[in-house]
Design goal:
600 residues, alpha+beta, Potassium Channel Kv1.1, Chain A, Serine Threonine Protein Phosphatase 5, Tetratricopeptide repeat, Neuraminidase, 3 domains, four-stranded antiparallel beta sheet, 16 helices, globular, Kelch-like protein diablo-like, Gal_Oxase/kelch_b-propeller, repeat, kelch repeat
Length: 600
């Protein structure tokens, strides 16, 4: 190794100013410059040089000196330098360097462009600056798309995206499509779907073609509070040009989910409009909706399950997460308290407690009402059911379960509640039942293939999945799904790990299960089920193990709440980011709880 005292040492130089035999020697310390500093210095030099060159060429153009080409647009002429235009625009580069007629011409005529837009683009070529406004954005975007100036095109697209409004989003979407601006087209399309109800009140909506209307309303991602909004928008569109558009109604109705409107709306508003009921072809959709809605009142009637009877994504979008009941320390105390989490502000707030203390309670929302089903009061398995209306801030009792069920798995599907398995005070059971709020009545369903308590449950697509749990002797790895139309059970691929007291939720059309326990081991692991391939895979584990955990999805995030980590009851909450495959903590619940009801 070099002697450190020598590093950066100096050289000795004779002083030319010395006299006689005297020699003056000076030690000069080398300046050590890192390669990074040199690179930055070089970049700065290049930037200054480029700015100076462009500024000089811009001055030449303004004085019309050394210009070798003129762009002519609608009679207006703009002198410029070929080399500058070619360096900035692939369009001009190809024109001036290929064997085309324009290569040797001194005047280039540009068709179908606006003079002010071309002038702005020429200025950009010399100055790297462009001003985008409402007055010039469309002409500028058209010109920059043709002349292939990506930077100007991006600036125009960003400006238009910032101007999106229910009155113009359809026009911007069409304009973006015509000019190949796919990011802007996607942004305008997403905005249209998110604000559909307001968009439908504007003139642009009424001017849509039939194909464009269908392309909009057929989507699961259309953001509406109810299907009544879609039907009403279609009626407005038809009536705008009644005679010519009425013949399109049967084609459009194929994509309106009439089975999801209310019975009152169907039999009054839809019937009174006479648009649907006045057409023999359209009547099949009306009758289909009547049969489907009637099956809610008369379970022996089977409504057809197809794309028109499947809720749109927005019908299932949750704003809050509820945590109800459970057990807490000290002494595994059973509680009745309820709290609600708002992800937008990352805050938990208490709401009115349940009438009964409950642990192992099933919790689900149906038609904006929260239902607490079964559970245990610490001594006995319960069959009582109560529901909470956030509008009145009150709990009320509804029809009890047909069987006592603690540690029951409860989920919503269509307009019914479903309760699977549980512990009846003696053993884990395999019975199941469903609740119809229209008639306040529970009905027995076919038994599951396996007795299960402390299981997870979700609805996805046309099926309900019951996952893991405890059969009275062992924690389970098996999963089975129920078809509410055929009333049949079938098995799917088992999980990778046996688990009971787990949490489960659906996110991005996949099933996530988190935590739980395998015998005495508390689990932090997370598994993901893909129904298209019938396979399970591992996701990033939670930051800590949690059995008796609550899991819920809101937006594009998965939340894991509370539970027991093997030593302590938890009130902490962590959220899973699918893109990053990462869990991070958010605001904690007010109460440490385990084996509680949880839903979004």
């Amino acid at each position: 190794m070099d002697d450190p005292n020598q590093a950066g040492g100096g050289e000795m130089f004779p002083d030319a100013g010395g006299s006689g035999n005297e020699t003056k020697r000076t030690t000069v310390q080398d300046e050590v410059v890192s390669s990074t500093d040199m690179d930055q210095y070089r970049v700065l030099q290049l930037q200054r040089h480029a700015v100076s060159m462009l500024s000089f060429m811009h001055g030449l153009r303004e004085r019309a000196e050394l210009c070798d080409v003129t762009l002519s647009v609608k009679g207006k002429c703009f002198p410029a330098h070929r080399i500058v235009l070619a360096a900035c625009s692939p369009y001009f580069n190809a024109m001036f360097t290929s064997e085309v007629r324009e290569k040797g011409e001194t005047v280039i005529v540009l068709q179908d462009l606006e003079p002010n837009a071309v002038e702005a683009i020429i200025n950009f070529a010399y100055t790297a600056d462009v001003h985008v406004s409402e007055d010039n954005v469309q002409a500028l975007l058209k010109a920059s798309s043709l002349l292939q100036l990506q930077t100007v095109q991006t600036a125009c697209c960003e400006f238009l995206e910032s101007q999106l409004d229910p009155s113009n989003c359809l026009g911007i979407r069409k304009f973006a499509e015509l000019h190949g601006c796919f990011d802007l087209q996607t942004a305008a399309d997403t905005y249209t779907q998110q604000h559909f109800s307001k968009v439908a009140q504007n003139e642009e909506f009424l001017q849509l073609s039939c194909d464009d209307l269908i392309g909009l309303i057929h989507r699961d991602t259309l953001n509406v509070k109810s299907e009544e909004e879609v039907y009403s928008a279609v009626v407005l569109w038809i009536k705008h040009e009644h005679e010519s558009r009425l013949e399109e109604l049967p084609t459009i109705l194929e994509h309106v989910r009439l089975p999801l409107v209310t019975w009152e709306f169907l039999t009054t508003k839809v019937a009174d409009d006479n648009l649907v009921t006045g057409s023999k072809i359209c009547m099949k959709y009306y009758n289909e909706a009547k049969r489907f809605l009637a099956s809610s009142f008369h379970p022996q009637l089977q409504g057809e399950l197809n794309v028109r009877s499947l809720p749109r994504d927005s019908f299932c979008q949750a704003k809050y997460i509820y945590a109800a009941g459970g057990e807490t320390a000290p002494g595994r105390c059973t509680i009745s308290s309820v709290e609600r989490y708002n992800p937008l502000i990352d805050r938990w707030t208490s709401v009115t407690p349940m009438r009964s203390i409950r642990r192992g309670v099933g919790l689900a929302t149906l038609q904006n009402v929260l239902y607490a089903v079964g559970g245990s009061d610490g001594l006995n398995a319960l069959n009582c059911v109560e529901c909470f209306d956030p509008q009145t801030d009150c709990w009320r009792m509804v029809a009890p379960l047909l069987a006592h069920r603690s540690s029951v798995a409860v989920v919503t599907f269509q307009n019914h509640l479903y309760a699977f398995g549980g512990y009846d005070g003696m053993t884990s059971v395999q019975t199941a039942e469903s609740y119809n709020p229209s008639v306040n009545e529970w009905t027995l369903l076919p038994d599951m293939n396996t007795p299960r308590s402390m299981a997870g449950v979700v609805s996805l697509g046309n099926h309900i999945y019951v996952i893991g749990g405890y059969d009275g002797a062992n924690d389970l790895i098996t999963v089975e799904k129920y078809n509410p139309v055929s009333k049949e059970w079938s098995s799917v691929s088992p999980m990778l790990t046996c688990r009971s007291m787990l949490g489960a939720a659906v996110l991005n059309n996949k099933i996530y299960v988190a935590g739980g326990c395998e015998r005495a081991l508390c689990l932090a692991s997370v598994e993901v089920y893909d129904p298209t391939s019938d396979t399970w895979s591992l996701a990033c584990p939670m930051n800590r193990p949690r059995n008796g955990v609550g899991v819920a999805a809101v937006g594009n995030r998965l939340y894991a709440l509370g539970g027991y980590d093997g030593m302590d009851y938890l009130n902490t909450v962590e959220v899973y980011n699918v893109v990053k495959d990462q869990w991070t903590e958010v605001a904690s619940m007010e109460t440490c709880r385990r084996r509680f009801g949880c839903c979004s």
